[in-house]
Structure formats: C-alpha cells, structure tokens
Fold this protein.
Amino acid sequence: MNNRFLDACWGKPVDRTPVWLMRQAGRYLPEYMAVRSKCTFLELCKTPELAAEVTIQPIDILNVDAAILFSDILTPVEPMGMKLDFVPGPVFEHPIRSMADVEKLRIPHMEQDVPYVLDTIKILRRELAGRVPLIGFGGAPFTLACYMVEGKGSKDFAQIKRMMYTAPEVYAALMEKITMMDMEYLNAQIRAGAQAIQIFDTWGGILSPSDYDKYVLPFTTKLINGLDRQNTPVIHFVKGAGTMLETVKKAGGDVMGLDWHVNLGKARDVLGTDMAVQGNLDPTVLYASKEIIEAEVKRVLDENADRPGHIFNLGHGILPTVPPENAIHMVECVHRLSQK
C-alpha cells in the first residue's frame, strides 16, 4: 500500500511529499455530480455504497495519497436530538439556547444511530486495500457548538459568543456533551477501520487567542486524549489559527493542519520538529494557469525546506467550480517537484 501519507503523519522520511485535498470528493468532479444527481446530500451521506463510491472517485481521478471518508461533520449531531436539513447549507430547526436544551441532548450509540458511517468505512477498507490509507473525520467540539447554537452558518457568531460570556455554565455543559459524543464517534470510526482521523475546527479562529485557550482548548484536548489512537495519527485543523499555533499544539494532535494565511516554514519553526504539518495552498490558486499552480506548489514545498512530516493540502476545502484538470495538475506537481 502507498503509506507515504501515514509515514509523513509520523514525521518519517518519504520518497515524495504526500498530497490529498479537503473536500476532494465534491462538486468540482462531474463524476461526483452524476452520483449526487440521484439523491439528496443527506441521502448520499447515509447510503454506504454511494458514499464509498464518491470517496474513491478522487483516488482514481487525482492520484492522491489518501482517501477521506465522505460524510459531514454534523452527521452525529442529528441523532443527539437536533433535526438537520441542508438548504443548501446546514440548518438546525431548534438551536440550543438554554440549559434545558442542553439537557435534552443525548449521546448517540454510534453502531445503532450512525451505522451507515461505519458501514461506509468497512466498504472503503475493503475497496482501498493495497492502495491508499483512509482518513476518518469529525468536527471539533467548538465548531459543532457553533452550528448547534447559531442554528446555521454565521457572519458574527454572536449567539455562541453571547453564551460563552453570559451563560458560561450552559456553554460548558454543551461543550462537555459534544466532546463526549465526538469521542464516541471518532473512536467508532477507528474501530471500523479509519487509519487516521482529522478533526475540523472550522470556526476555532473566530476567537481571540486568550478566548481559544479558555473556552476551546480544554475540550479539544480532552477529545484528542480520549481517542484510541495507538497507531492512528490525529490531524487537528483549526482554520484561522496562525496567531496561536503554540496554543493549538497543546491540544495534542500529531499533525497540525494549516490554512493559507500563515507561512508554512515559519509555522514549522514555531511548532518544532516533533509535529508534522498539513497544508497550505490557497484553494483559489486552482483557478490560475498551470504555470502559476506549479509555481505556488513549489513555493509551499520550498517553505517546508525538505523537512520530514509535511503533507501537502489546500488551506481549506477545494471550491466547487475549480476545473478538475487543475486539481490533477496540482497533485502531479507536488509529486514531481518533491520526488527524492
């Protein structure tokens, strides 16, 4: 099997830099859209055969070094007792606003409540055997809390911040329950066969470093420490965390995902030699010419300066209107320019 992704997670030398893309199974691929046209997004997530099919598509098309489970970070939140819909973004019918709301939430039994996620992983391990590793994933407690309290995406996240500041006991109770759910969910993925775990904290960067340290870090640390991860690396991605890398490192992940707002080389200097990194090309570079894409890939590789423990990725998810041939070209450039 192509193990360069897992080797890089552990900081081991590799023959060339591994690369995969966040949201690599997505709308930019005509093959994905052909499957998606037959069902809703939630139906796709909940149908193991189809979810496995779209997970494998970019492995064949892009020649990336890892597969990532096709699902959504909010999948395990729905069986906590929150009705979820996508219109097209996620919307919860009754957001969490009080202690009574928190107390109504249940911790799902993953094998009974989200069996389709675990079945998808089992199919993928069988279908990907001898090819590339499979990454499982979940949302970080704070990002899940943002959606659960705001009810949908937000520009200012006023509701979650108001809860943090004015009802800290409600906020803490909610975060504790989400953390326990998250731990169960990610451990179930590991048991089912996920070979690495990525924790997405998409909204962690909306907080000041001091608020992140106080209101987020304890719960993410508890989550990571609670994972059965003897041989399963954990990638911790906090979008917008360039000003607080040392604080995020304290959470205990094995790999830190970096967005495009930070120089990868300087981030590595801050993080030290004991932590691998993942990133961090600006996703919009994939709209550029092939010459510019190659130059930007080279820039990121040069910033890493041939240090072990680098996984090439975008600084966030690939955008739906990116031409697939540009993504293919980017992967080819990473492999060619980093070949030892």
Summary: The mean pLDDT is 97. The CA atoms of residues 260 and 291 lie 19 Å apart.
